[in-house]
Please model this.
Amino acid sequence: MQAQIEYPYPVKYFKTTLENRPVQIAYMDAQPDSNANKTVLLFHGKNFNGYYWKDVMTFLVKAGFRVIVPDQPGWGKSDKPDIHYSFHMLSYAMNQLLDSLHIPRVYLVGHSMGGMLAARFAMEYPGKLIKLVLEDPIGLEDYRRFVPYQTLDQLYDKEVHATYESYKKYQQSYYPQWRPEYEQYVQAQAETLKTPDFSRVAWVNAVTYQMIYEQPVCYEWDRISAPTLLIIGTDDRTVVGKALLSDDEKNRYGQYPALAKKTKEQIPNALLYEAQGIGHIPHIQDPGQFRQVLLTFLK
Model:
């Protein structure tokens, strides 16, 4: 059995109500030695939780930022309620978390699905953002237009039969080359496989896949008013539902360099940084480059 994954900072819990149900949201709150007057909020991707931000948290705290890293409701150490998952609902929950901590404005960084959520948050709560960073966000194209629809039953059947190996195989697609140090992020995702209520986790995984499919953000980029940085790995070819596509379609869609350029043109105040030879997770594949680019933009 794999070793237990330890979160890098103490985990706290925020209690809220979503769809008339009590929900506990787990989060890390890392504070620098000196008083921080600036806060960075980090949103994780679908196959991850707060754990994979550990190195980013370390350098942000060193740079004098307070760093808040939630596990979204349905992920990681947070509750996994059987409710209607939407990017609007998750944005609402994150706004409540910030209010509970009396944090008026943040720098927001979202990766993958977290980027899609960060975009929605930026549209819903423009007054809360100082700057926005989208790291290889999914949702740069509308998956409904070319990925075949799957029912929740089909999605659940796939998720409930997930294994450590199937998680690893999927995560391997994020990098041009697999390295042993990436294994820990598979372990972090696979923690839930050991839980007695894994069927509940599988259900949430299915429902949130459908959330991504049914709730595009790519028609509303012009609503983002915060200064925005798009960080894109030039080798990223992520498509949500890629396994359902023909070889020809796999080559046509998920073209991140082209999609990012198109997206940058639609966001009123945006910059684009292309990380050469990098896949879906710049902050893990090339942490030094990511650190430099992120801190330059935040400061």
Notes: The beta strands are 11-18, 21-30, 39-43, 66-70, 106-111, 129-135, 228-233, 270-275.
